[in-house]
Amino acid sequence: MHIIEEETEHYASAKDAPIGIFDSGVGGLTVAREIMRNLPNERMVYFGDTARVPYGSKSQENIIRFSRQIIHFLRTQEVKAIVIACNTASALALDAVEQELDIPIIGVIRPGTRMAVTVTRNKRVGVIGTESTIRSRMYDRCIQEQDPEIVVFGKACPLFVPLVEEGWLKDPVTEEVAQRYLVELLRKDIDTLILGCTHYPLIRSTVAKIAGEGIHLVNPAYETAQELGRLLAREHLANTGEHNVESRMHRFYVSDAAEKFGEFANSILPYDVKRARKIDIEDY
Question: Computed over its alpha carbons, how large is the radius of gyration of the chain?
Answer without folding.
Answer: 18
